[in-house]
Amino acid sequence: MDIARDPSALSGNAQPAVAAPVLAQPQEIRRADYRPPAWLVDEVGLDFALDPDATQVRSRLSVRRNPAGDGDHAIRLNGDGLAARSVMVDGVITNDWHMDGADLIVALPGDAHEVSVETQITPSANSQLMGLYASGGMLCTQCEAEGFRRITFFPDRPDVLSTYRVRLTGEKGRFPVLLSNGNCTASGDNGDGTHWAEWHDPWPKPSYLFALVAGDLVARRDSFTTMSGRKVDLAIWVRDGDLDRTDHAMRSLKKSMQWDEEAFGREYDLDLFNIVAVSDFNMGAMENKGLNIFNTRYVLADPETATDADYDAVEGVIGHEYFHNWSGNRVTCRDWFQLSLKEGFTVLRDQLFSQAMGSESVKRIEDVRVLRAAQFPEDSGPLAHPIRPDSYREISNFYTATVYNKGAEVIRMMRTMAGPENFRKGSDLYFDRHDGEAATCEDFVTAMEDGTGLDLSRFRLWYSQAGTPRVEARLEHDGDAAILHLSQTVPATPGQPDKQPMPIPLRLALFDRDSGDHGGEQLVVFDKAGDSFRFPGFAKPPVLSLNRGFSAPVAIERAVPQDELVFLAAHDDDPLARYEAMQSLTVQYLTADGGKAGDGDGRDAIGAAMAAILDDPALDDLMRGELLMLPGEAYLAEQLLVADPGAIHAAREGLKAWLGQRLEDRLVALHARASAVPYGLEAVARGARKLKTQALVLLAAGAPAVAAELAAAQYSAADNMTDRQGALMVLAGLDTPARETFLADFKTRYEGNALVTDKWFSLQAGSLHPQALEHVKHLAQHPDFTMNNPNRVRSLYMAFAVNPQAFHAASGEGYRMIADLILALDPINAQTAARFVPPLGRWRRIEPGRSALMRAELERVAAAPNLSRDTAEQVGRSLG
Ligand code: 0A1
Ligand code: ZN
C-alpha cells in the first residue's frame, strides 16, 4: 500500500536547473482592505443606441455621498477599455474629471448629484465575451464579475445597489426583441427603421446583475402562479429553429419555482421571468435579475440530441440560476471575497432540488464524485484557496470548484448538524435579516447560529482554511465496546503553513457482522486533533460505516480489511457508504505498489463484489450503475504522493479488461436486458440506458470484438442521444474500421447542430484510442473548429486535458499542445484560456520525467509577453 498520507509533505519534485522567469504579476486585492464605497448610486438610467459596430451608451447616475464612506470629494467610476465622450454633473458639461488608469474620477462638490457619462463600445469586436458582445447576430451582456465597467463607467462593485431604468433603441429588422431586467414599461416605433423599449427593475441590484439582450428571437411562453397567488409570465428565448428543444427547460423552471417555495419559502418577486439562450458564453449561465442568460447547452434538450446527463444538467442549472434570485440577488455579496455566500449556498440549493426531483442517493453520489474529481485536486495543488479567499488578482479565477462545490459542502455540514428543520429556521432568518443587503459569509454563519442554536465559532475555520482535512480512523474492540479513535490533520496550502483542527461532522453506523444490521445511525462532531468515542454493547467487533452520506468533505484514511469492504459494498443501507466501500475496494487494489496494481486476491474480491452487484435484484439500475463505476484516474492519482499517470492508466485499464473477461456473459446478458427497455425519461428507462453503455465499456476492455459488435448495434438501433453517444464513445476508443464509419455518420446526421458537433469533438478528444492525441491535432484544423466559441474550445481541448492517457503522453506533446492553446487563446478569451492552466499546474504531484516537462511548458507560457491578468495569475501561482 502506498496511499498518500499528506501531500503537503511534498516540497517539490524534479526542480529544473534553470531559475523560473520572473512573471510580472497584476496587483493583489486583499479581503482585509475592504472599505465601504465613498459614494452610493440610488438610481441608474441607461440609454443604449444599439449597433454591433458602434453602440452609444448614455448613463445617468443619481449619486449620494455614503455616510459610512471616507468623505471623498470625487467619485471613482470604474472603466475597462472605455473613453468618456462627455461627462456631465447635474446636467452641465464638466471638465473637472480625469482618468486614473482605466477609471474615471469625477470631482463632486456636494453630497448628492446627477452624473452622466457618454461612452461608445464595439460589441462585434468583443471576443472576451465580457460586457456587451455579439453572438450569432444578437447582442447580449455578461457583467459578473467586472463586465459592467466594459459598458459604462460605474462604481462596479457588488455593494453599490441601484434601481435601473433602461432604454434600448435598435434596428427593427436586426433586433426585433429588446430585453432588459425587470418589467417592460413602454415601447414604440421611431418610424425610421428603429424601435425602442424601456425597462424598469424595481429591485435595487449591483451592476453585475445588469443585462440586456437584443436579437431576432422566439419565445416559449408559459406562466407560474406563486404561493401568494401572483401570476408570473415566463419566457424562454431562443433562435427560431430551437423552440421545440425548450420544453424540458420550461418544465425545469416551473419545478424550480415550486420547489423554492416549498423547501425554502422563497417566492418570485417580478411579474416576468425571462431566460435567453446564447451560443457564445464563457460559463454555464448567469442569474441577471429577471433576465437569466444561458449557455445554449443548459437550455436546449430533446431525446434525439441530449443525453440523460444533459437533461439533468439543464434541470440543475435552470434551478441554480433561478435560486440565485434569493441567494445572490435579493441578498447579494458585499465584495467578491464573499462569492461563496451566494455560490456555495446556491449550489447546495440546486443539489437539494435535483435530489428531490430524481434519485436522492444517486444525485448525492454524483455530487461527491464531482467534488473528488474537481475540488480535491484543487485543494491539494498550487491553486488551493479557502472557500472565502483572502486575496486575488483576477476574480474570474475564483469561480472554482472550491468556492462552488466545497462551499456547498460546508453549508451542507451545517444542515447535517442542525437537522433540516432547524436549518430552515436559519435560512429564513438569513433571508429576512439581510434582504436588500450586500452581505458577508460571516453574516450567513451568524444567522445560522441564531436560527439553529448551533455554536459555529470553531466551524468558521471551514471558511478560512484551505485544504482537504485528512481523518485517520481506527476501530478498536475492548470487551463489550467498540472504540473509535480519530485524528485529523489539515494539510498546509499556499500561504497557510499551519492549520487548526476543524469541527468534522461524521455520520456513522456500526454493523453486527452476523445479523447484518446496525442499531441506528449516530452523528459524531469531531473537532480536536485527536479524540476517541466509545460505543458499548458489542460483544464482537462490529463493522464500521463512516462518513455516511459523505457528511464531511474530508479524506478518510483507514486501513479497512478487505472482507469489511466487501461486507459494506453488499450490505450497507446507506447508498453513498455502499458506493464508498466499492470505491475503496478498487482504490486499495489500484494504488497498491504506487499504482502498479495489487495482488490477484484484491482483484478477485472486486470481481466477486461486481458480480454480486450485477445479480442483486434489490438494486435499481441507476444505483447499480453507480456501484459498477470505477474510480477515475484523477482521483486515483490524488491518492498517491507522486503519481505516474501511465502506470495508473495501465493498471485501471488492466482491471477493466480482467472484469470484462470475467463478467463477459453477465455483461452481454445485461446489455440485452437493458436494450429491451423502451425509451422514456423515468428512472427505470434511464437506469437501463446507463447500464447498457457501462456494460459496453467493460466489454470493450475485455472482449473488444464483442463490444464493437454490440456498440454498432446499439448505435444503429438508438432512438435517443444517450444510447447513440454511449455506443459511439465505445467505438471511438476501439481500433476498429467501424470507428471511422460511425463517427462520420454521427457528424453528418446532426450537421448544423452546434451542441451535437461539440459532442463529436469531445468524444474523439476524450477517447481511449491510442492515437487520441494525433486525432486532436487534426481536429484543431477541422473547419468546424474555432477559437472564438468557448463551447467548441472546451469540447476539443478540455476533453483532451482531462483524458489522462492522451494529455500525459510521455513525450510531453500533450502538455505542449495545452500550453500552445493557452498562448493562442489568451488574447482572444482570457477567462477561458486561464481555465487550461490547472491541468499543467499539477506538476508537483507527477513523476519526475513528466513533471519537468509540465513545468517547462508553464515557464514557456510565463515568459510570453502581454499575458492577460487571468492567465498571468494562474501561471504565477502554479509555478510559485
Ligand atoms: N454567477 C454565475 C456564474 C458566472 C460567473 C461569471 C460569468 O462570467 C463569464 C458567468 C457566469 C453562476 O453561478 O451561475
Ligand atoms: Zn451561481
From TrEMBL:
CDD domains: M1_APN (cd09600). Its cofactor is Zn(2+). Its EC number is 3.4.11.2. One of its GO terms (biological process) is proteolysis. It catalyses: Release of an N-terminal amino acid, Xaa-|-Yaa- from a peptide, amide or arylamide. Xaa is preferably Ala, but may be most amino acids including Pro (slow action). When a terminal hydrophobic residue is followed by a prolyl residue, the two may be released as an intact Xaa-Pro dipeptide. Residues 100-209 form the Aminopeptidase N-like N-terminal domain. Residues 467-558 form the Peptidase M1 alanyl aminopeptidase Ig-like fold domain. Keywords: Aminopeptidase, Hydrolase, Metal-binding, Metalloprotease, Protease, Zinc. Residues 563-879 form the Peptidase M1 alanyl aminopeptidase C-terminal domain. The keyword Cell cycle does not apply. InterPro entries: Aminopeptidase_N-like_N, Aminopeptidase_N-like_N_sf, PepN_Ig-like_sf, Peptidase_M1, Peptidase_M1_dom, Peptidase_M1_pepN, Peptidase_M1_pepN_C, Peptidase_M1_pepN_C_sf. Residues 249-459 form the Peptidase M1 membrane alanine aminopeptidase domain. GO terms for molecular function: alanyl aminopeptidase activity; metallopeptidase activity; zinc ion binding. Belongs to the peptidase M1 family. This is Aminopeptidase N. The lineage of its organism: Bacteria, Pseudomonadati, Pseudomonadota, Alphaproteobacteria, Sphingomonadales.
